[in-house]
Design brief:
about 250 residues, mainly alpha
Amino acid sequence: MDDRRVAAVLSSAVAIIHPVLDILATRDPIGLKGRTFRESSVDDSTLDNVIDFLAKAFDTTDFPGTAGWEKLDSDARSQWWVNRIGALNTVAVAFPGVFGILVNRLPIQDLLGFANQAMVLVAVARESGVTDRETHVALLGSVLCKRDLTSLADSAPAKKEESPKSGPFALLRGMWQIANVLRDVAGELEKRPHPRGFYRVLGAIPLVGGVAGYLGERGALSRAAKQGRKWLAAHKTASASVTPPAKQLRR
């Protein structure tokens, strides 16, 4: 498959991922995030105490925008996306495995697995200070497709996709939307980090396949995130080593 086509599809996927991550990071529909920064007072009403209790419980998740999140460094924030959001998405990725070999030949798990890894990789990049679409496309191309798209990423136009809607299911809707975009590069799906062979064998067994699929995909996601961090570190090193040309002094 042509590199330019792959870059264009990945660019469209990144265009969906960014607003999904923004929704998770910034939206606070019932005010619990802001409440985690509040100090209790003796004048608080019973309702205040109940809300504060819920806010403190929510704060233990270290969700973006909470007081707990503010205490995390960039590495811990990156790992949060792998451990929390990645783990939640993996439930959807692994669910078809409940049916065992009956769905093993269908691309649904690879589509969702690729979408999940893409979303987490972009989140990790953002927490590392890398926010431009071109670098994200090159990152996904390297880790998930084993392609060097660095020279093509900035010239790959993203298809205009419908912006993900906010709400409690924004994350899963976004992942499904990304999976639909990725159908155009179905031949690339096998290149992403996959569950180890042991889990793939168990995945052929109905019911057991769901659990095996989850554990296997969690391991694959962790390996994808690790490869992504290495790629980002190498990219930053390469960028830092390039010395900009000196400006000529005008007389």
